[in-house]
Specification:
Layout (H helix, E strand, L loop, with lengths): L2 H24 L4 H31 L1 H24 L5 E2 L5 E2 L1 H33 L1
Antiparallel strand pairs: 1-2
Helix pairs in contact: 1-2, 2-3, 3-4
């Protein structure tokens, strides 16, 4: 059986299960909500799995694409390490008496710094290529 038929049969079965769970909800039984949430999680899992599988398959089949992807992932990790090293981490007392550890604080700070740097990099790239296309 090919992928198209598998997708059609799984979509039909999930649709019938969703209709049945809606009918169960309309009959004032709350178990139908759990069924719908389970169906939604199954669909989300199937979509994420298929996207990751076919993306990795396409990347691995082309050597130059794999090389470019590894360069981008490596540069992303290097940027995160730099942001992690320049961020400061200190224990912070939170609500309800909980304590945010210094490491967690450092990760949060590094993530915020990295977010700002990625915004700056994207803005500079857009300006550069916008000016370059006008010339």
């Amino acid at each position: 059986m090919n992928i198209y038929k598998t997708a059609v049969y799984s979509a039909l079965s999930l649709s019938i299960l969703a209709v049945v769970s809606v009918l169960v909800i309309l009959s004032d039984t709350l178990i139908g909500i759990d069924i719908i949430l389970t169906i939604a999680y199954l669909i989300l899992f199937a979509i994420i799995t298929s996207v990751l599988f076919y993306s990795f398959k396409a990347i691995a089949s082309n050597k130059s694409s794999l090389n470019n992807t590894l360069k981008m992932v490596g540069s992303f990790l290097v940027l995160f390490i730099i942001c992690f090293l320049i961020s400061s981490g200190e224990e912070t007392l939170m609500r309800e008496g909980k304590v945010l550890s210094a490491f967690s604080s450092k990760l949060i700070g590094a993530s915020i710094i990295m977010f700002y740097l990625l915004i700056l990099i994207a803005s500079v790239a857009m300006l550069y290529f916008g000016v370059k296309s006008k010339k």
